[in-house]
Amino acid sequence: MKRKALVFGCTGQDGTYLSKSLLDKGFEVIGTSRKNKPNLKRLKTLGIDDQVQLICCDLEQFTQTKNAIEKFQPREIYNLSAQSSVGNSFKKPRETYKSIINTTINILEACREFKFKGNIFFAGSGEIFGSTNTAADLNSKIDLRSPYANAKYQSFLLTKMYREIYNLKCETGILFNHESPLRDENFVLKKIINRAIKIKKGISKELILGNITIKRDWGYAEEYVEAMQLISRARIKKDYLICSGKSYRLQDIIEIVFNKLGLNWKDYVTISKDLFRKSEIEESKGNPQAINNDLNWKATTDIQTLIDILIEYELQNDK
């Protein structure tokens, strides 16, 4: 009998790559969506839309969540379902809290009631550390600068509590920025690359951005879902940071992208103060030493290669 994995949020960037990886490892993958007719674009891009068993499940509804776990009795559960945009969380804080905190407590409580014996992984966020003067680790100061970060931190605490008090095999992988060709258009790397390509083709004349002095720890989503699985299956249950340990200024990313397309970014990029955030994180960088040492995982796709992957995909698929 095949091992089963239940992936909440299987149609998003991470959920799609994770589902593909699990299928490749011989798992039967059950994916959930809140919609009866979910967007299968990403699953179709990876050619797995007919291999993932899709069910409708609203994680904000406790009974639906518990029923899904009881029905399929998976060996592994991954919760990647949430409002994932920091920017949008300022506009919709209530929706952000509900999509992160409510879903976390529903999954944990359903697993506690069901006496679930499998592994449960929750996707956390490096946003909980705010600006990092040095690379963050689990002992670093918490600095919550957005509704998204606040909700992710509460999810992290809930997961830790259920592990320590109720002995559930649950943990959080604290993910720093990670991109891929499957990323939504409202994320900054995708926005930069798409607009630069349109400028190259003469379709657009300008790229409008906010603060480009910020620095972020960027990685490749396809690699990061492998780290999720290692954390989930680790014998000792604990939380880990999933990151590259290197940060880059957004301005440097812009320059790399435009240079690769034979353009001078200064001729096309306009800075708008309206796009600056009031509580901006100047630098976000994590320390991957723990996951390197304990689980032998390391991010191997450098920023130049990641940008090459993203540009090549957009050039091939830009209509």
Written account of the structure:
With 319 residues, the chain is an alpha/beta fold. The protein folds into two domains: 4-178 and 218-242, 3-Layer(aba) Sandwich (Rossmann fold); 182-217 and 247-283 and 302-317, Alpha-Beta Complex (UDP-galactose 4-epimerase, domain 1). Helix content is 42%, strand content 16%. It is built from eleven helices and 14 strands. The chain has helices at 13-24, 41-45, 62-72, 86-91, 93-114, 147-165, 188-200, 221-233, 250-260, 289-295, 303-317, and strands at residues 4-8, 28-33, 53-56, 76-79, 119-125, 169-175, 178-179, 207-209, 215-216, 219-220, 240-242, 248-249, 269-271, 283-284. Strands 3-2-1-4-5-6-11 form a seven-stranded parallel sheet, sandwiched between helices. Strands 12-9-14 form a three-stranded mixed sheet. The model has no long low-confidence stretch (mean pLDDT 94).
Looking at the structure, the CATH topology of the largest domain is: Rossmann fold
Low-confidence stretches: none
Sheet with the most strands: spatial strand order:
3-2-1-4-5-6-11
Helix content: 40-55%
Strand content: 15-25%
Instruction: Give the number of helices.
Output: 11
Quick structural summary:
The chain is of the alpha/beta class. The protein is built from 11 helices and 14 strands. Helices cover 42% and strands 16% of the residues.
Provide keyphrases for this structure.
319 residues, alpha/beta, Rossmann fold, UDP-galactose 4-epimerase, domain 1, 2 domains, 3-stranded mixed β-sheet, 14 strands
Write the layout of secondary structure elements.
Elements: E1 4-8, H1 13-24, E2 28-33, H2 41-45, E3 53-56, H3 62-72, E4 76-79, H4 86-91, H5 93-114, E5 119-125, H6 147-165, E6 169-175, E7 178-179, H7 188-200, E8 207-209, E9 215-216, E10 219-220, H8 221-233, E11 240-242, E12 248-249, H9 250-260, E13 269-271, E14 283-284, H10 289-295, H11 303-317
Parallel strand pairs: 1-2, 1-4, 2-3, 4-5, 5-6, 6-11, 7-10, 8-13, 9-14
Antiparallel strand pairs: 9-12
